[in-house]
């Protein structure tokens, strides 16, 4: 029972942080449109988040490994989230929004990765499925997307800061009760981090994975605008996110049952193929209702892909560098992929519309699945050669 009690603050942190995250992901493009920005400018603002993440995630991950604490780094980042969000939402004009946005994302972008890194380690320590912890993030995301969507449809998009601050404060309160990680080794040094960069399978996997994760991030950024382009409203955007993340929560919750049957890379490749099919179908759709109906595929794509990729990465990196390695994975998944997805997506949706954007995303995901299949085949062959020696 003590084990479950010690996990409750972590589950509540994931719940409340992902509830804030859904507000930014689902409604920031619509909020920026309300502020008078066009599709390309919105793409620039959305690209600032991943740009900050590339700097912030390895930095905070390194600080976490160096000082052997995830809890205290999380507390610093959540206080930063609350203060910088107030400033960010006061800004008008593209340059001011970009500058304030960089500071805001510098504090917010590592929280998900640090929370997941802590969750992965606690799951290993207590011998429970990581998915049963991570599912609370998806539940927070789903509930927030549904409730906040309805509130903003009635009140107006300009009031999105208030639900954001509510869930952010909740995240801060529960963080004080987190159980921290115990790492019995010397503090990590900068030269240790170079071992990660020289880890060829790890870096290759991150590169090939990007062809798929870029499409995921582009859709995250522009699905709200695509739904409104097709005639939907904020409430419908909220329902789309709710269905998607509810299916993701189910995948996370039951991951322990199906996850060990095949190699984790098989699940990564499988979800890449489904991503590709999903985007090609979205490209052909003319009624937003069909997008809502197909949002259950989000669980099969993101849910399966994220769990399998994180599990695979955890096996590739040494225990001493878990936070740094996890946040490097996060920096590629949500950082570099996010920049490419936001800039490319903003330009495509502005010039050619949402249908063309999703057709390009389908092609990129298919390429990623193909590259990872080749990578998996070569990895197995190399292992076989080593065993025969």
Automatic annotation (TrEMBL):
The chain crosses the membrane at residues 12-30, 42-60, 72-89, 95-115, 136-155, 161-180, 201-219, 239-258, 265-285, 291-313, 325-349, 355-375. Residues 196-389 form the Major facilitator superfamily (MFS) profile domain. It is found in: Cell inner membrane. It comes from the Bacteria. The keyword RNA-binding does not apply. GO terms for cellular component: plasma membrane. GO terms for molecular function: lactose binding; lactose:proton symporter activity. Pfam families: MFS_1_like (PF12832). Keywords: Cell inner membrane, Cell membrane, Membrane, Transmembrane, Transmembrane helix, Transport. Signal peptide: none annotated. It is a multi-pass membrane protein. InterPro entries: HcaT-like, MFS_assoc_dom, MFS_dom, MFS_trans_sf. PANTHER family: 3-PHENYLPROPIONIC ACID TRANSPORTER-RELATED (PTHR23522:SF10), BLL5896 PROTEIN (PTHR23522). This is Transporter YwbF. It comes from Lentibacillus kapialis.
